[in-house]
Every structure is written in C-alpha cells, then in structure tokens.
Amino acid sequence: MDDLITSTENGLYCPAGDFHIDAWGSVGRNIVTHGHSDHARFGAASYLCTRQSAPILQKRLGDVSIDARDYGDVIDINGVRVSLHPAGHILGSAQVRIEHRGQICVASGDYKRQPDPTCAPFEPIRCHTFITECTFGLPIFHWTDPTIVMADINAWWRDNHAAGRTSMLAAYSLGKAQRVLAGLDASTGPILLHGAVVPLVELYRQAGVTLPPTEHASVENAKLHRGRAFVIAPPGALNSTWVRKFAPFSLGAASGWMRVRGFRRRKAADRGFVLSDHVDFDALLQTIKETGAEHVMATHGYTTVLARLLNDRGQRCTIINTRFGDDEDEPIEPAALAESEGAA
Q1: Residue 291 is inside which H or E element, if any?
Q2: pLDDT score at 269
Q3: Cα–Cα distances in Å, from 211 out to 118, 185, 201, 228?
C-alpha cells in the first residue's frame, strides 16, 4: 500500500498528517466523507466534514467536535494539504483529496455519477492513487436514466391511486428517500413519510434542497389518505406489521439491487425500481480512467472482480479490506446473480 494512506485497525490512516478517514474506532482527527452510519461513527476526538454534512453528523453523533468546511477549501494538517470535493452520493458527501510531497491520493467514499437534484454532482479529480468503492462492481450493474425511473415510479403511483391502493416504497432513509421525494409528482396525491425519514428530510430542506410537501405517516393520516397516498419508509419498516394500517397497498422498492430479479422476490416487492446512489460498473471504470491514477485501491463491494479486471489490463489495483457496508441493502450472494437480468 502507498505510504500516504495505510490500513489500520481503526480504518484508513494518513501517517504524515496523523488523521483517519471514515474511522471506526477511537481516533484523534477523523475526516468523514458522508453521514451514513457505516462511515460516520462515534469515537473520534474531532471530525472534519463538509458544511452540508455537519448537521447530519450532529444528528447521528450528538455533541461532538466538528470542523465544517466548504467544498474546495484547502486545509493544512501537519504539512499535508487536504480538501473535500463533491462525491454526488448524498447531501454533503465528499471525496477526500490528500497531497503530500508531490503525491496525490483521493479517497472516494461512496459516490455516483448520475444527476441528483438533492446533492452536488461528482467531481473527477486527477491523482496518483485512487481509493474507490466497489459496491456495484460487476458488469451486470448498469443504471437506467433516473428521469425514466422516476417516470415509472410516478406511473405506478397513479395506477395504484386509481385502483384505491396506497403506494408503499422502501427507500433508505438518508439520501435515497430524499432523491425519490424530489422526483415525485405531488399533484397525484399526499406524500407520507415514516418517522425515521421525517427529520432527515427536514435537514435537506434546511440545506436549501427543494422538496414537495409531506406529512407524517401517522395512524390518523393513514386513515385520512387511505388508497391515495405515496408512503416512503426504510426497507426494515416495510417488513413489519407497521404497514398494515395502510392496507390495501402495493409494495415497491428503490435500490440498485433491484437489478437482480431474485432480490426483488425475496423482498416480496410488487415493483422494483433500479435506482442507486452508488456508481454503476461502466461509470466506475470511466471514473478510474478520468482520475489518471497509477494505483487503484478497491474497497467494499465486489473488489476481487475489479482488481482482476484492472490488473489484467495492466493497471495496478490492490484491495483494501474495510468495514464499510451498503446503505442500500445487503450484497447479493454469487448464486443469486445467476438470476440477474442481463447477466452475461
């Protein structure tokens, strides 16, 4: 591994600057790429993040020491130049650019290349070493234009409304829920939010993101808007008895894993919408090319496949084992991929 970034028991570490990135243990200074719980963890003496991520970290971590910066601000940390750049993943998400003695390393965090009205678009950065996520690092994962996906979601809602069914959509509470909400046609009917989604939507509004009117998915609103509403809830909530108060309903799910037919079946979803906040396979390769990196470090996801592909092409790629998870849902076992649509 390059000397600029090493892997420790507490996560990615820069020895020259004496700081961690998305650490998962008790550390000193911790630079956080975004607010998902597998990247923003309690235990650091201080946190550095983007100005838009700070309220999310405060909500997740409580009263901790946070240094919030704008995208592009350059901070000198023990002689290492550090700056944060848009990752396009969720509100405030950032790549971390590190420069020391002429060497540049970029840690991507989670990222995507598709347009998203709820966060700043990804910014390719030239570097010597690129640490990239691989959540969907297989050729079967390719995303449809999100405007087409949102048109399908709105058509599904209209059909359910006409049939007197509530539309229940499973979407991760931070990032995916707000992205879907931004694309909904509020003229169809009322939009209700699960209690886990409500405060995070408010943080987006406070950050200046335009979203349609919403109401809490309470018992009273379930009765008042029965058969007409669009309900957004975390995937776990839709596997509980909580959904019964909205019956009759149709169950949908928005995730990159919906590309896999067997996954939709296991989730018992009536409709699956392929919408991810992570980069798909083609955009992953395109991004690596755009960075010009001599060395790629692959982490969390299908790292082995990517490393083999790049090394076969003559590009140096190594694997970093991290504890980062998947904010969309659990990864798919290889056997299930045989059922994938479009698998080659």
Answers
A1: helix 281-291
A2: 82
A3: 9, 11, 8, 19
